Amino acid sequence: MLCIFMHGSSGFGRQALEYMRMMARKGYLVLAPDHIEAHHKNRKKIAYTSSYKLACTGRMQKVYRYVVGYRLCELESCIRFAKMCFPKAKLVTVGTSEGAIAVAKSTQRVDTKLIFSYVLRGSYFEPHDIFHSQKGTHVVNVYGENDEFFGSKGSISSDTHTMCGGKHWTDGTKPNVKTVVLRNTGHNIMETATNRAVVEAIIKST
Q1: Cβ contacts of residue 88 below 8 Å, gap of 6+?
Q2: Of 88, 64, 76, the residue nearest 132 (C-alpha)
Q3: What is the pairing mode between strands 178-182 and 138-144?
Q4: Which residues, other chains included, contact 161 with Cβ-Cβ below 8 Å and sequence gap of 6+?
Q5: pTM over cut 0.85
Q6: How do residues 121-171 score in pLDDT, each as one tens digit?
Q7: Are 103 and 94 in contact (CB under 8 A)?
Q8: Angle formed by the axes of helices 14-26 and 193-204, to 10°?
Q9: Using alpha carbons only, how large is the chain's radius of gyration in Å?
Q10: Which residues, listed in sequence order, are joined to residue 113 by a DSSP beta bridge?
Q11: How far is CA 150 from CA 20, 100, 158, in A?
Q12: Which DSSP letter does residue 65 get?
């Protein structure tokens, strides 16, 4: 069993390592590319200081488009490598936040997609209908109801969706996707022991 893990804007922190350890405990070999130096100069803006005023500026929109394209290319290169080297392995792609966008967008055939800390709809970070899934792929989307970046209310996405967040912005869930919304939770869904237990249970079910 093989897992390709895509971390978020802030790179390999404690949260990212916790996801990977959960996958390893399940028995997966984890492949985790590190992209952070590719946009190091913009890391703080993307991860920490994106705001209603900045999100829709031409400069930041170019940064977001570049980052999403880079992450998607990175992921699909890893998938092709995995299929070449481990052609019979069960393949799971896992992403959190920015990395989850790449997992959602990828058109490559995998057995399971686990999408954490991102909502499957257009946003200021990626305004298009980003979700692709092949028939038979198991998909789980987990996010906090109070996500400050991508939530339905009081987030950058909800505040900017009429300007740069996608023409088809809705609160509905995608068909054939198991959606888990964690109550009283923000963008970091791994802050509490209860949430970590939920995430680990989802991983164990793959």
Answers
A1: none
A2: 76
A3: parallel
A4: 122, 123, 124, 169
A5: yes
A6: 888 888 876 788 778 899 999 999 999 999 888 888 888 888 887 655 555
A7: yes
A8: 40
A9: 16
A10: 93, 139
A11: 23, 12, 7
A12: H
